[in-house]
TrEMBL record:
PANTHER family: SIGNAL RECOGNITION PARTICLE 54K PROTEIN SRP54, SIGNAL RECOGNITION PARTICLE SUBUNIT SRP54. NCBIfam families: ffh. Belongs to the GTP-binding SRP family. SRP54 subfamily. Transmembrane segments: none annotated. Keywords: GTP-binding, Hydrolase, Nucleotide-binding, Ribonucleoprotein, RNA-binding, Signal recognition particle. GO terms for cellular component: signal recognition particle, endoplasmic reticulum targeting. GO terms for molecular function: 7S RNA binding; GTP binding; GTPase activity. The keyword Transcription does not apply. Residues 345-358 form the SRP54-type proteins GTP-binding domain. SUPFAM superfamilies: P-loop containing nucleoside triphosphate hydrolases. It comes from Glycine soja (Wild soybean). It catalyses: GTP + H2O = GDP + phosphate + H(+). This is signal-recognition-particle GTPase.
Length: 473
C-alpha cells in the first residue's frame, strides 16, 4: 500500500487549520490533494471530485472573506457584550505609561457601563468599580507590565472575588443518603437539573435516586421518569394525589432501603413566588432534613436571579444556587450578582439541554472567560470526558506519521461535537472569543456539509475519486 500526503487548508469554524491529509486506498492507489490547486489538476472525467473540492474551497473561503469584511464583531461566547465592553476600557489605556487617578476615569466609566449593561445589580457595580479604582491607583509602575494589562489583572481578581473566590463544592452527608432538595420557579430547568445532577454524581461513583415531588405540572412526573431512564437512575413516583412532603418521605425511605448514596428531590415551581409554594417547600424541607437545598435560577433573568436567591434563602433557607441556561443569551448579571447580593454561592451551572451539560461553577475560570482569556482547564476536562486516552494517542501517531485520513477527520469532528456546541468549544479557547455568531453558523453548516460529503463517499466512490486523481498525478 502506498500513501502520498498532501496539505489541505480548512477555514471552517473560523479556526483556520492546516494539516497533512493522507488518503489511503485499499487498492494500493493513492492521492495527492493540495487544494486549491488540486481543483485544477483534477481531470474533467472526475466531475464529482472536482465539484466537491471546488465547493469545499469556495465555502471555506467564503467564511474567511466574510470574517474580514464584516464590520462590528459580536462575540459568540456567552457574556459577549460584557467582554467587548470591558475591552473598550483596556483600549483607553493603550500608550499610557502608568495607571493614574486621571487616566483611569474613562476606563472605569466603561467598566461601570459594561457591568450595568450586563444587568449586574447597581450596588454590586458601585462596590466593584470603587474597589478596582482604589487598587489601580495604588499599583504604581511594574516593570514590563503595561497599565492596560495591570488593569485587566485587577479586574480579573475582583471578578473572581465577586463570584465567590473558591469553587463551592456540594456537601455530602456523613452517614445515610445525602438529600438534595431542588427548588425554583416554573420553567427554570429544575426537572432537567435533577437528571443532570444524577448523571454528574454517577460519574463520581455515587448511586442516585430521583424523587418526583412536582405534583402540579401533569407532565413533570413523566418527564422525570423519562430523564431518569435516560441517565439510568431510578425514579420514585407516587402520582399526583399524595402530598409532596409525603412523597419525599416515602422516596427517602425507599432510598435508605436500597442504600442509595444521593436522593435528589424535584419540587413544583410557580410562575412567581407565592405563599403556598413557600409553605409547601418548608414542609418538604422539614420532612427531609436535606443536606443541600439548591435554588435553580435561570441565568437569562439577570440580577432578578440574585433577588430570587435572596428571597428563597430568607424564606426557606438554602445552601446555594444552580444557574441554568448559561449557554443562552445571558448577559452575565446573574453569575456576577448572586453571591454578592445573597451571600449564597453558585454551586453548579447548566450550559445546555443535554444531560452532560452541568458542571461546577469555577469563579476563576468564569472570570477568565468574561475577560476573553478562554478557559483551558474546562476545555481539557471536556476533551478528557469525550475522548479516550488510547484514541488520542492513536490520533497523535497518525498525524505525526501523516496518516490522518477522512475517516479520522470525521471521527474528530464528531468527538468535538460531543463537547458541546461550536460556540461553547470556541469560547473555551484563548483568543477565540471574537468569532461572530454568523461565522459560527457558517462553520457549523460547513462541517455538516463536509460530513455529508465524506459520508457519501462510499468505498466505490472513494475508490473512483482516488483512482482518478492518481491518474492525473
Ligand atoms: N439551553 C438550555 N436549556 C435548558 C437548560 N436547563 C434546562 N433547559 C430547558 O429549559 C426547559 C425547562 O426545563 P424544565 O426542567 O422542564 O423546567 P422546570 O423548572 O422543571 O419547569 P417546571 O416543572 O414547569 O417548574 C426545558 O426545555 C429544558 O430542556 C440549560 O442549561 N440550557
Amino acid at each position: 500500500m502506498e500513501a502520498v500526503t498532501g496539505s489541505h487548508h480548512f477555514s471552517t469554524l473560523s479556526l483556520s487549520f492546516s494539516h497533512n491529509k493522507t488518503l489511503r486506498s485499499s487498492s494500493a492507489k493513492s492521492i495527492r490533494l493540495s487544494s486549491p490547486s488540486t481543483n485544477a489538476s483534477l481531470s474533467s472525467r472526475n466531475w464529482f471530485a472536482k465539484e466537491v473540492w471546488g465547493w469545499v474551497n469556495s465555502n471555506s473561503k467564503g467564511v474567511a472573506v466574510r470574517r474580514y469584511t464584516r464590520g462590528v464583531v459580536v462575540r459568540a461566547e456567552m457574556f459577549g457584550q460584557l467582554t467587548s465592553g470591558l475591552e473598550t476600557a483596556w483600549n483607553k489605556l493603550k500608550g499610557e505609561e502608568v495607571l493614574s487617578k486621571e487616566n483611569i476615569v474613562e476606563p472605569m466609566r466603561d467598566i461601570r457601563r459594561a457591568l450595568l449593561e450586563a444587568d449586574v445589580s447597581l450596588p454590586v457595580v458601585r462596590r466593584f468599580v470603587q474597589s478596582v479604582s482604589d487598587q489601580a491607583v495604588g499599583v504604581g509602575v511594574i516593570r514590563g507590565v503595561r497599565p492596560d494589562q495591570q488593569l485587566v489583572k485587577i479586574v480579573h481578581e475582583e471578578l473572581v472575588q465577586l463570584m465567590g473566590g473558591e469553587v463551592s463544592e456540594l456537601v455530602f452527608a456523613k452517614s445515610g443518603p445525602t438529600v438534595i432538595l431542588l427548588a425554583g420557579l416554573q420553567g427554570v430547568g429544575k426537572t432537567t437539573v435533577c437528571a443532570k445532577l444524577a448523571n454528574y454524581l454517577k460519574k463520581q461513583g455515587k448511586s442516585c435516586m430521583l424523587v418526583a415531588g412536582d405534583v402540579y405540572r401533569p407532565a413533570a412526573i413523566d418527564q422525570l421518569a423519562i430523564l431518569g431512564k435516560q441517565v439510568d437512575v431510578p425514579v420514585y413516583t407516587a402520582g399526583t394525589d399524595v402530598k409532596p412532603s409525603e412523597i419525599a418521605k416515602q422516596g427517602l425511605e425507599e432510598a435508605k432501603k436500597k442504600k442509595i448514596d444521593v436522593v435528589i428531590v424535584d419540587t413544583a415551581g410557580r410562575l412567581q413566588i407565592d405563599k403556598t409554594m413557600m409553605d409547601e417547600l418548608k414542609e418538604v424541607k422539614k420532612a427531609l432534613n436535606p443536606t443541600e437545598v439548591l435554588l435553580v435560577v435561570d441565568a437569562m433573568t439577570g440580577q432578578e436571579a440574585a433577588a430570587l436567591v435572596t428571597t428563597f434563602n430568607l424564606e426557606i433557607g438554602i445552601t446555594g444556587a444552580i444557574l441554568t441556561k448559561l449557554d443562552g443569551d445571558s448577559r452575565g448579571g446573574a453569575a456576577l450578582s448572586v453571591k454578592e447580593v445573597s451571600g449564597k454561592p453558585i454551586k453548579l451551572v447548566g450550559r445546555g439541554e443535554r444531560m452532560e451539560d452541568l458542571e461546577p461553577f469555577y469563579p476563576d475560570r468564569m472570570a477568565g472567560r468574561i475577560l476573553g482569556m478562554g478557559d483551558v482547564l474546562s476545555f481539557v476536562e471536556k476533551a478528557q470526558q469525550v475522548m479516550r486516552q488510547e484514541d488520542a494517542e492513536e490520533l497523535q501517531k497518525k498525524i505525526m506519521s501523516a496518516k490522518f485520513d477522512f475517516n479520522d477527520f470525521l471521527k474528530q469532528t464528531r468527538t468535538v461535537a460531543k463537547m458541546g456546541s461550536v460556540s461553547r468549544v470556541i469560547g473555551m479557547i484563548p483568543g477565540m472569543g471574537k468569532v461572530t455568531p454568523a461565522q459560527i453558523r457558517d462553520a457549523e453548516k460547513n462541517l455538516l456539509n463536509m460530513e455529508a460529503m465524506i459520508e457519501a463517499m462510499t468505498p466505490g466512490l472513494f475508490f473512483l475519486l482516488i483512482n482518478d486523481v492518481t491518474s492525473v498525478e
